[in-house]
Amino acid sequence: MSAVLLPTATARQTWAELAAEFKRLPGLSAAAIALLVAASASGLVAPWVLGRLVDDVIADAGTGRVVRWAVVIASAAVVAGVLTAAGAAVAARLGETVLARLRERVLDRALHLPSATLERAGTGDLVARAGDDVAVVTNAITGVGPLMVGALLTIVLTAGGLFTLDWRLGLAGLVAAPAYVLAMRWYLPRSVPYYARERIVTGERAQAMAGALHGAATVRAYGTEDTHVARIADRSAAARDLSLTVFGVFTRFGLRINRSEFVGLSSVLIVGFLLVRADAITVGAATAAALYFHRLFNPIGLILMEFDSVMQARASLARLVGVASLPALPVPADVHAQDHEAALVVSVREHRYQDGPAVLSDVELALAPGERVALVGASGAGKSTLAGIAAGIIPASDGAARLRGVPLEDLGEVRVRKEIALVSQEVHVFAGPLADDLRLARPDADDADIEKALDRVGATGWLRTLPDGLATHVGEGGHRLTAAQAQQLALARLILADPAVAVLDEATAEAGSAGARDLDRAAAAATEGRTTLIVAHRLVQAADADRIIVLDHGRIVEQGTHSALLTAGGRYAHLWQSWQSPYGGGDEL
Length: 589
Description:
alpha/beta, 6-stranded mixed beta sheet, 12 strands, 11% strand, elongated, P-loop_NTPase
């Protein structure tokens, strides 16, 4: 199943989102604009004064006049420096505030994404957005952003200064505008798609790395390190090649800009010379015009040097806005589950991933209240897919799951998560106190409730060995739990959450042979009296179930109790005999 990436906002949606955020901070936005405009305007003083100074020197105005102009230039430089620093600080504060709010919205939407959406997108895309994309935008807003805004203001105000000196000098400066426009029109259509693709490739690289690291033990067990390293290297090479291509395009863009600067400055100098010779302007005015146009080199150069960062930030911002703009989950109608003879019913006429082959076909599965049903079958039979549909994680492409007669989509994501809990072999231990990790399932649980849940899954032994008991920090940076202990933690969460239905998708697979029996007992204790669907990793789990469903190539081929299926001598009996055999491949399916 290939990943379906989360949405990316269009340029219009991105700018509209930013504008809306800035409008929410009118005072800070106005202060930032005022300071940046004042800083840029103060930079116009020195070239104008130098022009006047040239005229005074030609007119032999005296040393006192020259000194006064020098004082004005020095004062203007100090004021410009103070205003620039203040403007950058306020603009950075404004940008950080806007970005913080956007990050909060991205996190909120990410945490409330429908399980099916996250399942299709995979974790790599979301991790890349929450990590790499946020870092790129943060760098642009706090560092490059204020400088870019200041550079743009300088360009606009300097062009205005040229026209103030003489409209003909202003038109001479504008001669460079078509060359700049042509350079931009050449560059933008070529660069923007590359940057958007670069962010996607970064997400694919993160997905490959996350998959390899998360399943490191399995990778080592099957000796597939080279395959995973090659996949990461392939994605990294794709990102590198894109970066080199963009750099080449950017270099050619820089050459076009240099040509534009040459054309503009030459035009201003020639027109200035002709106007001075015609006594239309003074030498000082022509000098000021040349200095004004030369003053454009630094802001234009800054824009050129940082345009790469701006384009990357634009692509990253569009990806963040794409997630932040996802519609909130609809509030489902107040649907009451009915009294029904079946607690959970799954009907799938056919299910396939995108355009792939059918994974499930003609499946009808009904679990009675309190019934314990096991799914068995060879790898690829469709067990995990059926479990995902039953848990509401995967929407059936042609079918539905119903809880006590009500379709899961009518109950809504929040209600489904309260009613149906999925425990898989992929267990995450959150960094922090052990008690806080367990309270994720029930925030109002006290220490006695937590200890009772841990005792029920057989975790009391290792709990007593922890240095600070329930206050011990676990997870990253804290006490490391074994795979079996982490699974007991997940089962204790299940007890605290107390859902009506539990779906165990190979939940005890990571225990290994040594801890398998203890973890099986923990799973049985956690699901006692609860409607339970188990994807059996070992056939002994199925043997203890009330009913066994045998899947083969996406179809139910047998069902019944352990003893009845053995007597029937069909597919399950063959699996059981193979499992019992010393040459049957061990104790796992």
